[in-house]
Amino acid sequence: MRFNGYGSIVAGTLLGEGDEPYTADAVSGGTYDDEIRFEPETLVALRAVADINDEMTATVQITGKGAEGSDAFIEWAYVSYQLTPETVVNAGRFRLPLFYYSDFLDAAYAYHWVRPPADTYGIPVSTLTGVNLVNTHYFNNVGLTTQIWYGAETDETEDVVADITKSQGINLMVEYEWMRLRGVYHTLKLGIDPKPLLVNTPGGLIQVDPEASNTDITYKAAAFMIDYESILWRSEYTEVDNGEKEKSGYVSLGYQFGTLTPHYTYSQYEAVEEKQTHTIGLRWDFKPAAALKVEYSNFHYETEGGYTVVGPVEADEYRSELLSVALDFIF
Amino acid sequence: MIRELKTLLLLSVMLSSFSPLAMAEGYSVIVHPSNSAEFDKGTVERIFLSKEKTFTNGQPAVPIEIQQPSTHRDYFQETIIRKTDSQVRSYWAMLMFSGKGTPPKEVASEAEVLELISKNPNTLGYIPSDMVTANVKVVLSF
């Protein structure tokens, strides 16, 4: 049995008196207001791996989040079978590998921000129960990682039960020297119970036809990443189609000066609501396996009006500012 | 006399421009003597990052790492992996916690690296060049 894990102690506050509350973690519902709060994003995760035999391992990953109160939840629980040295099949519950950071979103030590741009990553469902297959192959010095998955998941949010079925997808990642290019295509069926006329779902805002029990949702996304010497570039573009189209994307640029990595990110979201976010931050690798991060985000939100699960929204526009400090570690 | 001196000088210049394998750089990448695979810097880097899982001869590749803190490992990461320590740790955090890979087995000393590699044809590691024995094969120096 091998144990390891990761954690983040995060403190954040909105800078303006009476700024609109800001949800930083769509899965746990962790939300910041104009007081200094630690609960929204503080978490610890423990991973245990046991060998079953030469080709098989069992993995369990348990996460405790401040925003979830005292409930710990099982994010990963799966059995892996090493088909060949390059191919592994996992069966059980795993994180959905939707966007570049999706399947290690909570392991913040692995990236430069306190959190990846919420305009892209604000999806309330993060896990899937089913099977997935990962193959990595190198053609000389060009790497190709292929991942395919199939599964289903039931998720209860805000008095609504979302039943996700036929969740299937493929992602391909090509790696060459200092760049990575990733593309993903993912489809699912979503059933809502009870059936309100409009619901806020993993696929965004959906008009539910009381006659129909299922909505088809399609995700398309591309990522382009560069790590060239001390330069760091991250960019993603995503499209969600649930009858309406939602688009989001970001570009992020950083530079590593020894243990210090300053960075800037611009991200955008377009649907019923429009959001733009500017983020500047600094990562300091002050000790092995631990990093201290400071981040300032400026959000602009605008909508001409529409409907959400809690009812109609008036046309609105506001700006808010969030300051966060995080200590991220792995063990 | 002058001519002899000149010849000697010329000889010494020629000799110094050669660098025989035995006098290689400070570290050697080693494998089991029976390992017939081909290696270059890129191959070693990819095997240690678990990107390539087999040697060029098709056999499974098992890299052996040295535990941190280690100046030897720092030098290896700097020259072969070309990543800072926090970048290496971030890389493994990404793979481990997304269920896609595990970092190489770590041992406490170079003597253990030598011991393991002399016994197992699938292993690969690095040690200071002056520790190399006849029980292992050097495939790269850095």
Automatic annotation (TrEMBL), chain A:
SUPFAM superfamilies per the UniProt record, alphabetical: Porins (SSF56935)
Record InterPro entries: Porin_dom_sf
UniProt-recorded name of the protein: Porin domain-containing protein
Native source organism of the sequence: Ketobacter alkanivorans
Organism phylogeny: Bacteria, Pseudomonadati, Pseudomonadota, Gammaproteobacteria, Pseudomonadales
From TrEMBL, chain B:
SUPFAM superfamilies: Periplasmic binding protein-like II
Signal peptide: 1-24
Keyword terms: Signal
Tagged with keyword Signal: yes
Top-level taxon of origin: Bacteria
Keyword Signal: yes
Protein name: Phosphate ABC transporter substrate-binding protein
